Amino acid sequence: MDILHTDRAAGLPRGLTGPARVLAVVACLVLFTMMVLTFVDVVGRYVFLAPVPAAYEIVSLMMPAIIFCALPLTMLREGHVTVDLLDAFIPDGAARLQGLVVNLISTGALGLLTWRLGVKAYDDHRFGSMTDELFIPVWPFGAAMTVLCAVATLAALVNVWAYGSGRKLRG
């Protein structure tokens, strides 16, 4: 089975639609929960003079969850922000080379980020780092970010292979 044959409905390589959906649903649920928590905190703060305890800390833990759940899917679909003013004038061969170079750079940057996140998660575990108000251990969040960043690195690598093998001409 060739992983680069795309599932046209999802725009993803075949076999990755299910895991991508799981990450997307998790990101959406975390975002919705964060919105509800912020709403309840603001209403509690200004209407009842009773804010949600540690709401800021909880939201601070939810933000990276949203970002790192969406990152692998964004990398795989090449859904990041781009400026395409000249794309209509660039020949297919140059566009393919551009896609290859951009994804190689992204792979390297994400690999470096994965390594540093792993080191930070390990240090947080080793030193017993905890959040300030709720005393939640920080290392599991760092470990999850490390794994999701590694998945995003692999997604960028899949794009490198797709451009390099000629299976993809433009982003």
Explain how this protein is built.
There is one protein chain. This protein has one domain (6-164). 67% of the residues lie in helices and 2% in strands. It contains 4 helices and 2 strands. The protein has helices at 17-46, 55-77, 92-127, 139-164, and strands at residues 6-7, 12-13. It has a two-stranded antiparallel sheet. The model is unreliable at 1-6 (pLDDT under 50). It is mainly alpha-helical and 171 residues long.
Mean pLDDT: 88
- Helix-strand category: mainly alpha
> Which percent band covers the strand fraction?
under 5%
| Cross-sheet strand order for the largest sheet | 1-2
Assembly status: single chain
> Helical percent range?
55-70%
Q: What is the topological layout?
A:
Blueprint: E1 6-7, E2 12-13, H1 17-46, H2 55-77, H3 92-127, H4 139-164
Antiparallel strand pairs: 1-2
Helix pairs in contact: 1-2, 2-4, 3-4
Summary tags:
171 residues, mainly alpha, two-stranded antiparallel ribbon, 2 strands, 67% helix, disordered N terminus
Short overview:
It is built from four helices and two strands, in the order ββαααα.
